[in-house]
Amino acid sequence: MPADYIKLIASNKKARHNFHIDAEYEAGIVLVGSEVKSIREGRVSFQDSYADIRRGEVFLRQLHISPYKFAYNDNHEPMRTRKLLLHKAEISKLIGKIKERGYTLVPLKIYFKNDKIKVLLGLGKGKKLYDKRQSIKERDVKRDMDRDRKKYSA
Fold first, then answer.
1. Span 49-102, pLDDT tens digits
2. Confidence class of residue 2 from pLDDT cuts 50, 70 and 90?
3. Which residues contact 148 (CB under 8 A, 6 or more apart)?
4. In terms of Cα–Cα distance, which of 26, 22, 23, 20 is closest to 109?
5. CB 91 within 8 A of CB 71
6. Which CATH architecture has domain 6-127?
7. What sign does the dihedral 22-26-31-36 (CA atoms) show?
C-alpha cells in the first residue's frame, strides 16, 4: 500500500460549477459507527451541504448519510450536524476569509485516506450566471480541441 492510500467515496460535482474555489482544506470528520458503515457503501449525498464555523469549531451541515440498513437500535440521524476536525490556525484563517463578503465553505469530496474518512473543503465565492456560462463554453471548446487533436494525430 502506498504512503497515502486515497479511495474516493463521493464528490460534489455541483460545487465547482456553482463556486469559484480559491483554497482547499482537508478535514477529519466525527462520525458514529453506523455512519462509517453507510459511507463505506457510498450512501452519501452532498446536495445543499455546507460548512460553517460556530464558537471556533467547524461543522458540516445538510450532508445526507443514509441510515445503515443492518443497524436496528442505534442508527444515526441522516441529516445531523457533524463536527469537522481542523487545526486552530486553519480555523482562524477560515474565519478571516469567511468574514469577507461572499465566501463560503463547501464540501468538495469525501474519501478514505489511510483508513480514515476525510472531507475536502473548498473556500469559494458563488458564481454569477454569466460565469457559469463561460465555464461551460470553455469546457466545450477544450473538448472540441482535444477531439480534433486526436483525429489529426491518429
1. 888 899 989 998 988 888 887 777 777 777 888 899 999 998 888 888 888 777
2. low
3. none
4. 26
5. no
6. Beta Barrel (2.40)
7. positive
